[in-house]
Amino acid sequence: MRKLDVEELGRISADEFKSVEKMPLVVVLDNVRSLHNVGAVFRTSDAFLVESIYLCGITSTPPNAEIHKTALGAEFSVDWKYFENTQDAIRLLHEEGYYVYSVEQVEGSVSLPDLKLERDKKYAIVMGNEVKGVLQEVVDMSDACIELPQYGTKHSLNVSVTTGIVIWDFFKQIGRK
After folding, report:
1. Half-sphere exposure of 116 (CA within 13 A, CB side)
2. Rounded to whole angstroms, how far apart are CA atoms 6 and 134?
3. Span 66-114, pLDDT tens digits
4. Distance from the Cα of residue 168 to its chain's centroid
5. What residues contact residue 120 under an 8 Å CB cut-off, 6+ apart?
6. Alpha-carbon span 52 to 28, nearest angstrom
7. What is the CB neighbour count within 10 angstroms for residue 162?
8. Spatial strand order in the sheet of 50-56
9. Which fold has domain 13-174?
10. Which residues are CB-neighbours of 38 under 8 A, at least 6 positions away?
11. pLDDT tens across 8-45, in order?
């Protein structure tokens, strides 16, 4: 086997990305403190044609050298908005017809393998702070919660890893490419 070089991968440009049909998914970062996590979410969102990222609260925004270090330019291709508080972002998403899932361990959560999405609906996923998770007020505003099953000793995964897993599952179900 021979590794493919960058030209052989046939990737689209950042300008082309703007006009390509996106997956109807908004990723909401609720007070994510790590710039590396923010950058990784941008990069994953670019890879799977996420519509937009909402950066909320203490979550840093581009331009930022530390975000760029992980995003590798995806902060220029993926649309994003900043909200002072996550609740405002959730209100806007609801007004625009999005079904909002918080990714959090709660009573009555839906296990990710059991999640069934509809191709004609718009979705948002809320990802929480590395220590405190999704704010309870935001969980209360969500339409439902998704939980990733875990079988080891730790009770959570890194937020950018979790985001990647959830985006991949959404892409498999509703990706438009």
Report:
1. 0
2. 37
3. 999 999 999 999 999 999 999 999 999 999 999 999 999 999 999 999 9
4. 10
5. none
6. 9
7. 20
8. 79-83, 50-56, 23-30, 122-127, 98-103, 144-147, 110-111
9. Alpha/beta knot (3.40.1280)
10. 29, 32, 55, 59, 60, 67, 70, 71
11. 888 888 888 899 999 999 999 999 999 999 999 999 99
